[in-house]
Amino acid sequence: MGIKKIISNTNLPNTIESLKKDLFHLGVEPEMVLLVHTSLSKIGWINGGAVTLILALQEVLTKEGTLIMPSHSADLSDPKDWTQPAVPEDWWEIIKETMPPFDQTHTPTYEIGVVPEVFRNFRSVVRSYHPTCSFSAWGKKAEKIIEKHSLDHGFGDKSPLNKIFSLNGHILLIGVTHESNTSLHLAEEKCRHYPQEKKGSPIYNEKGEREWKNYKQACYSTEFFNTIGNEFEKKHIFKRGKIGNADSKLINQRELVHFAHQWYDEKINNS
């Protein structure tokens, strides 16, 4: 959405104080462990853009809370698996051999919006070490959430997602659907009979040298995320409201993952 259209769709400028008011009204509270997915343009014009939104979230949560966002870099992967867009087959080996390894500081996020990229560069934000599935976190439990992120099953039991699950954290969707709800990948990983696959990415090994490393994970797919999310909303209590102009939802992550886990189990057993 262009800036002119965003301005024309906004009654008054969004500020730190107005966004804090919206967050409080939706149910975001101090000391929460909160995983945020957002579309900045859906909120409307913000004085200060992504920086203002992040500051508002931090001020509401306080330093006793914890703010988490995805910092995924899906482009650090085998080019033979790329589809959006695909690249010529005679490029594959060149790309694979010369792709820079994942670096927590220098590797940018990839196609997940401006807010996560700004957030990962904020003061006191830490990032987990995973070439494609990393998360960034700020606040009291940030280090606990990002530490020891397993290369295998990057959205699984040894991932930041499962740390949020164990801490009974919440998910905040701002202007996005459940298709962006990464926690549903944790439900895929928790299904014993869910299809598995092998992937590979460049990382730094223990000697500080570049190495192409293969790893295992569930066959991640967002195909059913909106179906699962919509069915969950019909059967469970969650909070719905507006952040600026953006339709927003505050959801208990553990309840959603339990529901999705059961949904996937039933689908697999009936297939």
Automatic annotation (TrEMBL):
GO molecular function: aminoglycoside 3-N-acetyltransferase activity
Class in the EC hierarchy, top level: transferase
Keyword field contains Cell cycle: no
EC number annotated for this UniProt entry: 2.3.1.-
Catalytic function, reaction form: a 2-deoxystreptamine antibiotic + acetyl-CoA = an N(3)-acetyl-2-deoxystreptamine antibiotic + CoA + H(+)
Pfam families noted in UniProt: Antibiotic_NAT (PF02522)
SUPFAM superfamilies in alphabetical order: TTHA0583/YokD-like
Keyword annotations from UniProtKB, A to Z: Acyltransferase, Antibiotic resistance, Transferase
GO biological process, one term: response to antibiotic
Domain of life of the native organism: Bacteria
Family: Belongs to the antibiotic N-acetyltransferase family.
Protein name (Swiss-Prot/TrEMBL): Aminoglycoside N(3)-acetyltransferase
